[in-house]
Design brief:
CATH topology of the largest domain in chain B: Rossmann fold
Distance between the termini of chain A: 37 Å
Oligomer: heterodimer
Helix content of chain B: 25-40%
CATH topology of chain A: Rossmann fold
Number of strands of chain B: 12
Strand order of the largest sheet of chain A: 6-7-8-3-9-10-12-11
Number of helices of chain A: 12
Radius of gyration of chain A: 22 Å
Number of domains of chain B: 2
Number of helices of chain B: 10
Distance between the termini of chain B: 28 Å
Largest interface: A-B, 49 and 45 residues
Shape of chain A: globular
CATH superfamily of the largest domain in chain B: P-loop containing nucleotide triphosphate hydrolases
CATH architecture of the largest domain in chain B: 3-Layer(aba) Sandwich
Helix content of chain A: 25-40%
CATH class of the largest domain in chain B: Alpha Beta
Largest sheet of chain A: 8 strands, mixed
Number of domains of chain A: 1
Largest sheet of chain B: 8 strands, mixed
Order of helices and strands of chain A: HEHEEHEEHEHHHEHEHEEHHHEE
Number of strands of chain A: 12
Chain lengths: 339, 328
């Protein structure tokens, strides 16, 4: 099953991201401006949440986007989903540049890329009934007629494993796992091709998590979906993804097919990360943690962002930014040690 | 390997919540022991009663919750009978707690040194300021905080999440307690930071002979850390034993299901095993075994109350149909 999908996604790219950046600038307040005029060393603070990222996702592929807090994985996901405006760079959806589309194509693209959020408690309007949460967008975008709405909502609810008889209930009457299904149903109701799942299962209990992961897999088969699966949980990513992208402080450091990255990680950060994953099979282990903290994105280290924590750092790592280079077929990594 | 004088022996603990909607048996007939230098993983999903068990041990359960039965024998002394004065002598001194959110331990408006020295002096008036400061400094160093002298003068907001949790652990260790209760202390942290904290905790527990209860929903964390494990479901321990036994040969259908639903290595491209349904509300538990509605082995026997049995030596399980065969 896997190998067939692996072949299929090589054919067409559904999404391409080129030199994408997102900067957040904290501009100076009045006191700051005056201080600057008087010659003091205050500057605008800039956070490069996402720094010059290139990424291609093929049709039918599941790409796992992994990183620790502050690495920019959610920001990247939100830009892909069209919720955030990029500061720089281009997003192509089905070979069309997203920000130069005409109104109609733009709207179709916005519908085709949907997002599923982490917190099933915060992402549903508590005052709306489930049938309105799921049924609102399809009516607005004329995907179904008003008189077909209730049948359509029932159909979508069934698809995600919710009892259609609960359509008139409110979100608070559901458990966490069921709410996440409502969130998924809402996204599916506008017939998307591409789902950005931002930590979509992180808030769920283990047994419920398994149910929702299986649901994602089933939906992928049934509806031919493509996923950008953002998660900090490497076990989940290993289970679900075809390809893994590792981010650190706004940059992609390594990309590889899932099996290969878990078998032979290349980038020192990937190695460290994989080393730290607690696994049921590993008992009574002596943890050998990487030292140091994740640096502040306000003031990231020069050169390779990982060098202060890297056990193998050499001089060039402190001064020069390493670029992503191919290291094997379908594998790229940004590390000076590969040169 | 039964410890005759364990640091903590809990017998038939019952903590119930008398809510307007009815009686919730959040902790029901829970028994376990933790010995010196031993780390016990207390595992369960949300609402299983694992946190309430931890809170009951140091008498932090607020109304409408109340301990209604059982014994908590700490070094032989029954804490259920102890008065508030005795409990505050023990809390933070002989028994310490680490919370999921370190800001539950730390006061945001006080410097770290003030808070740490207070913890020492509150339990021992004879310690001089200089000595208390020295001990605080050492404790910070022990949990891997660089430049402890400087960091002592900082406020909690000047630390990152991982560092705050280290400070909370340092405070827990200050008086070299006999027992530490850690409630999901690494759940909110990043993987690399979690690894660091697990490593420090493990070392310190062995160094000082501290008994530890590590409450978590994450089986994988417990696998690398704990010596033994208790699995809770709907207020009860359904299975307990040594970590390798339980994780390699789970007997209770719930434990089996839980282990089967963890994704990873061997599950790539396959469907995960899923336990059907969801955790029942504590207010509306079914008659008999609470897991019966989700269990594939359930039959008529399961409508009566399963008792804790020991089908294999050293393994306790609360099930009428223990799965003694090979793992799935």
């Amino acid at each position: 099953m896997l190998s067939s999908t692996t072949r299929r996604y090589k054919l067409t790219a559904i999404l391409e991201v080129r030199n994408l950046s997102k900067r957040y600038v904290k501009s100076l307040d009045l006191a700051g401006k005056i201080a600057q005029r008087l010659g003091s060393d205050v500057r605008e603070e800039v956070v490069h949440a996402v720094d010059n990222v290139n990424l291609t996702v093929a049709r039918g592929e599941v790409v796992g986007l992994v990183g620790e807090s502050g690495c920019g994985k959610s920001t990247l996901g939100r830009m892909v989903a069209g919720i955030l405006e990029p500061s720089n760079g281009d997003i192509f959806y089905k070979d069309d540049l997203v920000n130069s589309m005409d109104k109609e194509t733009g709207q179709q693209t916005a519908l085709a890329v949907q997002m599923i959020f982490q917190d099933p408690f915060a992402s549903l309007n508590p005052r709306m009934r489930v049938e309105d949460i799921i049924g609102e967008a399809p009516i607005l975008h004329k995907i179904v007629q008003k008189n077909e709405r209730s049948a359509y909502v029932r159909e979508v609810m069934q698809r995600v494993g919710l009892d259609p008889d609960y359509a008139r209930r409110y979100p608070h009457q559901f458990s966490g796992g069921q709410r996440q299904r409502i969130g998924i149903a809402r996204a599916l109701a506008v017939k998307p091709d591409f789902l950005v799942c931002d930590e979509a299962i992180a808030a769920l209990d283990v047994s419920i998590q398994a149910q929702v992961i299986n649901l994602f897999m089933d939906l992928r088969e049934a509806l031919d979906l493509t996923y950008l699966f953002i998660s900090h949980d490497l076990s989940v990513v290993e289970h679900i993804s075809d390809r893994v992208v590792i981010m650190y402080l706004g940059r992609i450091v390594e990309t590889a097919p899932t099996e290969e990255i878990f078998k032979s990680p290349n980038h020192p950060y990937t190695k460290a990360l994989l080393n730290e994953v607690p696994r049921i099979a590993s008992r009574g282990i002596e943890y050998q943690p990487v030292s140091g903290e994740i640096p502040s994105p306000l003031n990231p280290p020069t050169g390779c962002h990982f060098h202060p924590r890297c056990p193998d750092a050499i001089d060039i790592c402190r001064t020069e930014v390493p670029y992503l280079k191919p290291i094997a077929t379908e594998r790229i990594s940004a590390c000076h040690l590969n040169d | 390997m039964r410890d005759l004088h364990p640091t903590l022996r809990v017998e038939g603990l019952q903590t119930h919540f008398f809510t307007k909607e009815g009686l919730a048996r959040a902790v029901d007939d829970v028994s376990f022991t933790v010995g010196k230098s031993e780390i016990m993983g207390l595992v369960g999903e949300s609402g299983s009663g694992k946190t309430v068990t931890g809170f009951s041990l140091i008498d932090l359960v607020d109304p409408p919750g109340k301990i209604v039965g059982g014994q908590i024998l700490f070094n032989g002394e029954d804490l259920v009978q102890a008065n508030e004065r005795r409990m505050s002598q023990l809390r933070g001194n002989r028994i310490a707690m680490i919370f999921q959110d370190p800001m539950m331990t730390l006061n945001p408006v006080l410097r770290i040194d003030t808070q740490m020295m207070e913890t020492i002096v509150a339990h021992n008036k004879n310690v001089s300021k200089v000595e208390a400061h020295q001990r605080s400094r050492d404790a910070l160093g022990q949990v891997g905080i660089p430049a402890p002298d400087e960091r002592l003068r900082a406020y909690p907001h000047q630390f990152s999440g991982g560092m705050r949790q280290r400070v909370a652990i340092a405070i827990a260790l200050l008086n070299k307690p006999d027992l530490i209760i850690a409630d999901e202390p690494t759940t909110a942290l990043d993987v690399t930071i979690q690894g660091q904290i697990l490593s420090e905790t493990q070392k310190l527990c062995h160094k000082f002979g501290t008994a530890m209860i590590w409450i978590t929903h994450d089986l994988a964390v417990v696998a690398g850390l704990a010596d033994k494990i208790c699995v809770m479901y709907a207020g009860r321990i359904v299975e307990q034993g040594l970590i390798n036994d339980v994780l390699d040969r789970p007997i209770h259908p719930y434990t089996r299901g839980l282990l089967g639903s963890v994704p990873g290595h061997n599950t790539r491209g396959k469907r995960l095993f899923q336990i059907p349904g969801m955790t029942p509300s504590l207010l509306k538990l079914p008659q008999g075994c609470a897991f019966q509605a989700r269990c594939s082995n359930a039959d008529n026997a399961c409508t009566s109350e399963p008792m804790m049995k020991e089908p294999v030596s050293g393994r306790q399980v609360r099930c009428f149909h223990p799965q003694l065969g090979d793992t799935n």
